[in-house]
Amino acid sequence: MQTDRMTKLRQMLDKSPTDPFLLFALGMEHKKLHQKDPALDFFRRTIALDPGYAAAYHQAALTCEDAGDIDQAKRLYKDGIAAARAKGDHHAAGEMEGALSMIE
Predict the structure, then answer these.
(1) CA 13, CA 36: separation in Å to the nearest integer?
(2) At residue 18, what are phi and psi to the nearest 5 degrees?
(3) Is 17 helix (H, G, I), strand (E, B) or coil?
(4) How far apart (Å, rounded) are the C-alpha atoms in residues 79 and 57?
């Protein structure tokens, strides 16, 4: 299933295929529809283009949690915490630390 928003985001992505925000937004749209694999693909592509995009790690981890893949969620949280700290984003690191502590 593809929503109108997804169609518009894909059209924009066709024009700017390396835009991390568009990739992240498509990941979020798939996540809303509980489409784990496509959501994770877009979050991973976001991270590949911008390793400091903390929200992509966080949302990927939440997607894994929702799907019951706790080990992968933990790995993503840990990677996201490291990425956020490296970027100086202490708020994002703290949010992911809290989420990680709840599943450990």
Answers:
(1) 20
(2) -110, 25
(3) coil
(4) 7
Q: Which domain holds residue 26?
A: 4-103
Q: Please give the Cα distance from 101 to 104 (Å, whole number).
A: 5
> Within a 13 Å sphere around the CA of 33, how many CA atoms are in the beta-carbon half?
15
Answer whether 0.90 is exceeded by the pTM: yes
pLDDT at 3: 85
What average pLDDT is seen over the chain?
96
Measure the CA–CA gap between 80 and 55, rounded to whole angstroms.
Answer: 8
In angstroms, the Cα distances linking 51 to 5, 56, 72, 100 are 25, 9, 17, 19
Q: Tell me the three state secondary structure of residue 82.
A: helix
